[in-house]
Amino acid sequence: MLNEKGLIEESEGARVIFIEGKKIPLIVVKRDGGFNYASTDLTALWYRLNEEKADWMIYVTDVGQREHFEMVFSAAKRAGWLPPNENDYPKASHVGFGLVLGEDGKRFRTRSTEVVKLVDLLDDAKKRCKAALEERGKTKDWTAEELEQTAEAVGYGAVKYADLKNNRLTNYTFNFDQMLSDKGNTAVYLLYAHARICSIIRKSGKDIEELKKSAAIDLAHPDERMLGLHLLQFAEIVEDACTSLLPHLVCEYLYNISEDFTKFYTNCQVVGSAEETSRLLLCEATAVVMRKCFHLLGITPVYKI
């Protein structure tokens, strides 16, 4: 197919496609007649476009593969498989990500220099969270199942969030202590914040669903307005994260509204105030937006800790 379009040329015994601006051609058939990643990726790209009718193909690999996929996509454009304008559909994008480093600044590995398995990290995070929850002494009334579910939600969420909160193009250092801290921009802090909001609503004794039907939010205090304005940015933030393929934008937003809520709750009495109904609804709106962010990040929210 590529040969019929006149794209294939011979070079040092191999069959290649020359890409404008690149010194080295894209090898599609090696000199021994064998195939390689480029031939596989081009074949898969054609199949996804013509058989699966894909509109947007997103290739997620480490940043070291960027040039390879640039050349594959350029070859596909020359073949007429993809439009010349990268913003037109169907399109293909490469999402590169940086390395996870150990505290020694080298690629994250075990002490025996083996690659760390994700399942082991998740299990370890869950165990640490379970121990931390039990140490706090507030789980005496919980069932064993509730403790397991909460430890899993917080532990797994901590690992996911620690990865997603960083710009995917940069390297980051893996640190369990920072990851599982309940202070700063961590999943633990954010899940605690969400649970606290839910606790405020529960302790009010009000039926929040009924309040939604009959009351409105009045953003009179400056901290109420700041929180409300940031909540309204949710759709814009999600769109930016999707179009730029940068999930850390959602993490930044989630942390910022959590900080805004803390400031609001510190300066504005909720339960027992004259503005209780409005402020309870603002609490609920914050919790709803936080849950939507958690869902986008693949994190399970917790309602009590």
TrEMBL record:
Q: Which UniProt keywords apply?
A: Aminoacyl-tRNA synthetase, ATP-binding, Ligase, Nucleotide-binding, Protein biosynthesis
Its EC number is 6.1.1.19
Origin superkingdom: Eukaryota
**GO MF entries:** arginine-tRNA ligase activity; ATP binding
Which reaction is recorded as catalysed by this protein?
tRNA(Arg) + L-arginine + ATP = L-arginyl-tRNA(Arg) + AMP + diphosphate
Name the CDD domains for this protein.
Anticodon_Ia_Arg (cd07956)
Q: Which SUPFAM superfamilies match?
A: Anticodon-binding domain of a subclass of class I aminoacyl-tRNA synthetases, Nucleotidylyl transferase
- Write down the InterPro entries for this protein, in alphabetical order: Arg-tRNA-ligase, ArgRS_core, DALR_anticod-bd, Rossmann-like_a/b/a_fold, tRNAsynth_Ia_anticodon-bd
Q: GO BP, one example?
A: arginyl-tRNA aminoacylation
According to the entry, every stretch annotated as the DALR anticodon binding domain falls at 190-305
Q: Which family does the UniProt entry place this protein in? A: Belongs to the class-I aminoacyl-tRNA synthetase family.
User: What is the protein's given name?
Assistant: arginine--tRNA ligase
Which species expresses this protein natively? Answer: Solanum tuberosum (Potato)
